[in-house]
Amino acid sequence: MGNAALLNVPDRDLSSARMAVNRAAWASKYYRTFDRDAVLRIAGAVAKAGYEKAPHYAEWAVRETGYGVVEHKTVKNRLCTHDLLDYYHDLDLVSARIDEERNIVELPKPAGVIFALAPVTNPVATVYYKAMLAILSRNAIVLCPHPAAKECSADAARHLAAAAEAAGAPSGLIQCVENPSVPLVEDIMSSDRINVIMATGGNAMVRAAYSSGNPAIGVGPGNAVAFVDPSANVDRAAKCLVESKSFDNSILCTNESICLTLEENFGNVERALRTAGAHICNETDTDRLRDYLWADKGFNVEAIGKSAAWIADKAGIRVNPATKILVPVVRRPGQDDLLFREKLCPVLTLTAAVDFEQAVTFARHASKRGAGHSAAFHGEDRDRLVAFSQAVPVYRVVVNAPCSQGAAGFATYLPPSFMIGTGYAGRSSVGENVGPQHLVHWTKIAFERDSYADLEGIDLSTVSQPRAVPAPSVTAAQTPSPSATPSVDRNELRRLILEELKGLKGDAQ
Fold this sequence. Notes:
Blueprint: H1 12-31, H2 36-52, H3 54-65, H4 70-88, E1 97-99, E2 104-110, E3 113-117, H5 123-136, E4 140-144, H6 150-166, E5 174-176, H7 182-189, E6 196-199, H8 203-210, E7 216-218, E8 224-228, H9 234-246, E9 256-262, H10 266-275, E10 278-280, H11 283-293, E11 294-295, E12 298-299, H12 308-315, E13 325-327, E14 349-353, H13 356-367, E15 372-378, H14 382-391, E16 394-399, H15 403-407, E17 440-446, H16 490-504
Parallel strand pairs: 3-4, 3-6, 4-5, 6-7, 8-9, 8-15, 9-14, 10-13, 15-16
Antiparallel strand pairs: 1-2, 2-17, 11-12
Helix pairs in contact: 2-4, 2-5, 2-6, 3-4, 3-6, 4-5, 5-6, 9-10, 11-12, 13-14
Domain Aldehyde dehydrogenase: 6-269
Region (Disordered): 469-491
Protein name: Aldehyde dehydrogenase domain-containing protein
């Protein structure tokens, strides 16, 4: 070794992240005893805080990442506050349940500590969404943003944490990794203190979450096909497509990637799209756009989340500055064209099939690149709607509505979500829009089938306990910093310490 340095300098960012996980573990043990009134009070406070600063964080996210539209990100941020809470307000994941008919008592068991990855495309909306899910399910959460969105994400997490603590939540319930990196993420994902991983991001990160050794809920990419049937109101369908594809510059994975119709209807769709604000590309424009969007190393990431006019300028295409989306035309849907792949930018490929059977065949194969995700159907032919939905390997088909907002539950009655489960088709553990119910499991106390069970004699008061409302003088600005110690009473603190010591006995080797 000679004079080689023997000092091993610790990784401060990794140490800080591990400390956050440890604090979250303590917070989760305390929070899992809160009753439903306390949970809803904290969720309401966080929703209010997030709603009020939605425009602020929308502008910050666009400025930091260069992706999307401030106005649209504001909408998405706000949808993950009061709208999300309203949807799940009556879903009780806190109280014990008694089924007297089947002699079963069910006790809710929150996961514990959630490690939640947030993508660069929807950074603050995902922070809001996953924090709300954790609160409603009585879990602690450690958020890990994309490095390109770490500043706005971390500040948003601190803002929500302060609001939660002011409403009575334990300190450490909501935290954020300040300086994320691949080695750090891999280390934390494999920690035995992490109870479940919520992975939103690229395929590589989702696969890493599933192979970490910890339970994971992962979601995959989309490549939504929108079929415009001749029975559709074509002008209404085109308006939906353009509004959806231009929303936040098409940064959502639920956005339409391909517009598919029949040859008999092609002219009508082309005209309607142009009227709705689309630039229909001729053959030269289509070639230029394809060449710009795809290079030797795959999709050109500089186009992600940029406006149609910006992309057109880079590709050498002359368009009206007010153009909302670009529509390259590939007349034959059978060919494996690069333009039939997912495009997280306002570019919607238009193609036409000779008949409905060919359309379904093409849609089925194109959707395999976003297997388990979403598709859209525009039209009034219910038989074709069912046939299309049955054939295409997706778990959401949005009808006569924008797919970007519809599949995410913001223009339909699907659960509002920024985690679109792709199920078995997409190699995911969940095939529906992820909600707080996926973060709670239930212990079932089952009595003998044919015997009488006196279920009224079971005391369930210890399952959750009332928590006092904080004094009115306590505000978010006055709450302890995220590094402060949770305000736990002495008996509770003693119980937690004993549990902690029991858990360490087998580790000191």
